[in-house]
Amino acid sequence: MASTPETKAPESESFEEAPGFANTIASVISPVNILLSAIISFLLFKIYCKFVKSSTDTVVLELPKLRKDMTVAELRHYDGNQPDGRVLVAVNGWIFDVTRGRRFYGPGGPYAAFGGKDASRGLATFSVTSSDKEYDDLSDLNSMEMESVKEWEAQFREKYDLVGRLLKPGEEPTTYSDEETEDTDSPASTPADKKRE
Ligand code: HEM
């Protein structure tokens, strides 16, 4: 008949403890903490990206812009092995400064075979090879392959700086003034144009 408060007490204690624990958990995963964690993660990610970017782009920022038409032989010097590390690649009769992509085209990169070379044929045939021919007029490529060359050219124009034209044997280089902007609208009969004619 007598009540037994001693036996009830532990029950009520454990009942009260649960919300306390839940509160602690709730306070740890509160929206504020989640937001702070997200901000910290984002900042750490930005720092990481900056670090990766600066380690690959340093050379690019230091190099003066190059504007010059070149022969295949001249182009060969720009394979990334010279002291300034500049890398040039020709696509469809145009030379691009791909130094910012030197992790692809520079020494040891997966597409190093294209560095300092005319990559048109390799890109058209999906093969990471280049020839040491004097000038490749691509005349034996079929229309699909030429279409692919033009698509690659468009991608390079978007991503990289134009340096100049790849000169055919006997062709004279254009003299570019310092102020001259990239004349990318008037390609002087590239191999792809020749194929269309
Ligand atoms: C299994 C085969 C291949 C894989 C898995 C592969 C993978 C890739 C990846 C992931 C990228 C983008 C890299 C980035 O933007 O960070 C890339 C870019 C590229 N790939 Fe490949 N690739 C393959 C074969 C080839 C072949 C055969 C060619 C030659 C025609 C080629 C030429 C290129 C070029 C020119 C780029 C653009 C690099 C730039 O942005 O300047 N790839 N490849």
TrEMBL record:
Region (Disordered): 167-197
Coiled coil location: none
UniProt cross-references to Pfam families, sorted A to Z: Cyt-b5
Ranges of residues in domain Cytochrome b5 heme-binding: 70-167
Keyword line: Membrane, Transmembrane, Transmembrane helix
Membrane-spanning residues: 20-45
Cellular component, GO annotation: endoplasmic reticulum; membrane
Alphabetized InterPro entries for the sequence: Cyt_B5-like_heme/steroid-bd, Cyt_B5-like_heme/steroid_sf, MAPR/NEUFC/NENF-like
Protein family according to the UniProt entry: Belongs to the cytochrome b5 family. MAPR subfamily.
Protein name: Cytochrome b5 heme-binding domain-containing protein
Organism: Diatraea saccharalis
